[in-house]
């Protein structure tokens, strides 16, 4: 059934996050030959509309207001509800990001709709659109279909490939007026933590350290390798709890969920809660001195050895390429 699907683009620091383009690709599948309408919300976002069209949106609607400069649940839901009222979509796709996880249930409740969250793939099978999502911390997957009402899903970043960018694609860009009022939270200032290099949740290469790294300084060889491969440094909760690094680096069930092309786990045992955040990475390399470590069960390549010897050797070899 061809349907109109609204896809929320996510803007950070004046640029669209990759998950926006992945959501457009999911929206294309969900539209089943219907229309994909990108939605951009912010204080000044219309300049980004064409990029959504280049990645496959048929057209884009924007809601611009200085009160929307920063995400707030009230502001964004008022903006989005104005778009939904004017567009009357049959489908909605958001990224399963901090923003999407906060906003989607609120919108679903307002629309009295169901919501399929954290979708890792979406395909047509047997005349149905089938949504796949992990359950039990990634130990199993469930498949869902929508039998009635709005088709509303959030998609896990780095799982659904964006469509090829085509700069010759064109489409309408229109603005929708929304009254943004009675905000219960106002963000006065955003103080960013100094971050080194690539954003962990969007990195294609992640070098992650666990308790085996043994100290804050122990992360230095991992940082060197990450910077050489234009990647990011991540960590297990064991390393964060031991104060070797900041909790913003934690990967896993209670940390970030990542799916890079290459994940190198250094001195990480592979507890189920850690695997929940990284086991969908495309290629997993594990370095651990314990040959029985659980991490080897999910690794494509395992190196049994001392990470303080292996990581510098890898760095030297990559430098030669
Ligand atoms: P360890 O289990 O201590 O493993 C260290 C590993 O390093 C060992 O395998 C050892 O052989 C190896 N090693 C030591 N020295 C070297 C060396 N020189 N060279 C090579 N290898 C070496 N954990 C997460 O990671 N993310 C989460 O989000 C998360 N959420 C949790 C939520 C709940 C509710 C609970 C209960 C736990 C959660 N945990 C999480 C914790 C999880 O259960 C583990 O305790 C944690 O992942 C262990 O971290 P680790 O692998 O770094 O440490």
From TrEMBL:
Keyword Flavoprotein: yes
Any one Gene Ontology molecular-function term assigned to this protein's record: electron transfer activity
Ranges of residues in domain Electron transfer flavoprotein alpha/beta-subunit N-terminal: 5-195
Keyword Electron transport: yes
Free-text cofactor note: Binds 1 FAD per dimer.
Binding residues annotated for FAD, in chain numbering: 211, 236-237, 250-254, 267-274, 288
One Pfam family it belongs to: ETF_alpha
A biological-process GO annotation: fatty acid beta-oxidation using acyl-CoA dehydrogenase
Lineage: superkingdom: Bacteria
Cofactor dependency: FAD
CDD domains linked: ETF_alpha (cd01715)
Entry similarity comment: Belongs to the ETF alpha-subunit/FixB family.
UniProt name for this protein: Electron transfer flavoprotein subunit alpha
Organism in which the protein naturally occurs: Sporosarcina globispora
């Amino acid at each position: 059934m061809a349907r109109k699907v609204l896809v929320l683009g996510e803007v950070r620091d004046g640029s669209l996050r990759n998950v926006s383009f992945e959501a457009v690709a999911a929206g294309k599948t969900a539209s089943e030959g219907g229309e994909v309408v990108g939605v951009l919300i912010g204080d000044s976002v219309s300049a980004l509309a064409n990029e959504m069209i280049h990645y496959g949106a048929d057209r884009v609607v924007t809601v611009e207001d200085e009160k929307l400069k920063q995400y707030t649940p009230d502001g964004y839901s008022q903006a989005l509800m104005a778009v939904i009222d004017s567009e009357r979509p049959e489908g909605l796709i958001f990224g399963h990001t901090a923003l999407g996880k906060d906003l989607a249930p609120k919108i679903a409740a307002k629309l009295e709709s169901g919501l399929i969250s954290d979708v890792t793939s979406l395909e047509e099978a047997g005349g149905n659109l089938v949504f796949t999502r992990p359950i039990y911390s990634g130990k199993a997957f469930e498949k869902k279909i929508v039998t009635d009402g709005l088709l509303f899903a959030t998609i896990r970043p780095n799982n659904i490939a964006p469509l090829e960018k085509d700069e010759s694609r064109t489409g309408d860009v229109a603005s929708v007026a929304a009254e943004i009022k009675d905000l219960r939270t106002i963000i006065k200032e955003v103080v960013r933590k100094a971050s080194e290099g690539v954003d962990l949740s969007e990195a294609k290469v992640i070098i992650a350290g666990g308790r085996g790294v043994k100290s804050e300084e122990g992360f230095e060889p991992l940082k060197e390798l990450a910077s050489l491969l234009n990647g990011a440094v991540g960590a297990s909760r064991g390393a964060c709890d031991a104060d070797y690094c900041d909790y913003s680096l934690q990967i896993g069930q209670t940390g970030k969920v990542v799916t890079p092309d290459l994940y190198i786990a250094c001195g990480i045992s592979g507890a189920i809660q850690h695997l929940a955040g990284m086991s969908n990475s495309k290629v997993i390399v594990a370095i651990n001195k314990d040959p029985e470590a659980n991490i080897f069960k999910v690794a494509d390549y395992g190196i049994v050895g001392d990470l303080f010897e292996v990581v510098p050797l890898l760095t030297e070899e990559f430098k030669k390429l």
